[in-house]
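S1.2 Input.
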Amino acid sequence: MPGEWDLATVLIAALGVLFIGLAKAGFGGALGMLTTPLCVVAFGAQGREPSFALGVLLPLLCAGDLFSMYHYWGKWDKRNLAWLLPGVVVGVCIGVLLIGRFTPRQLNFCIGLIAVLFVAFQFLRDRIFAWEGRFQPSKAIGLPFGIAAGVTSSFAHGAGPVVAMFLVAQRLPKEVFVGTNVLLFTWINWIKLPFFVGNGIITWDTVRTGLFFLPLIPVGVWLGVWLNRQMSEALFLKVAYVVILLAGLSLLFDVNAVTWLKP
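S1.3 Output.
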């Protein structure tokens, strides 16, 4: 790790990366939304643009996806790929192009806004899904959902709420829901990879930084399994949502949260 990075930066970024593994270990993909805001806050304290954090995290997310695919192989409804992926490709193209047009402050604001809206979604989703009748997905409905997933995933690796709205409304069995979620995000993240490389978001610098944090993914998985046995999922998620909200607000209002941990 570069010597000029202080301990507070490393700790906050490490916590964000840990949540990749925690999200894959059974606490739900919602936890993955915590990763980007925390890493943007941490690396931003060292003068790095938010796109640097996005570039560091994508290969780590792809590594986590491979681990998840092993555990959920075949436990998915692959029709959702046909419904969502065409829009995802379009959305990723739009999102990557827009990233280059935003200033670091504007991109921070967008990432913070996505984080805050994500927390609001978690508390309102029961009402959102409270309509009667079974949701009937199709390519026509999947296209705008896919575009929205591609754009938000490019900006903040934050397509979780969009994908959740599309999947939860189908009332899939729990195991099929988790497996389908894993399948979709594996494709979404790997689709983004060449676009991020081609647009200079992933560089040798981001790769080297990512390799430093890579061992934390299996550690996060192990920690997630252990925490699942030690505390209730509901309590753990509430704590995570508070942290996501605080990280999102710090980005929205341009507050350097890393300084809080310094003596």
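S1.4 Remarks. The chain has one domain: 7-261.
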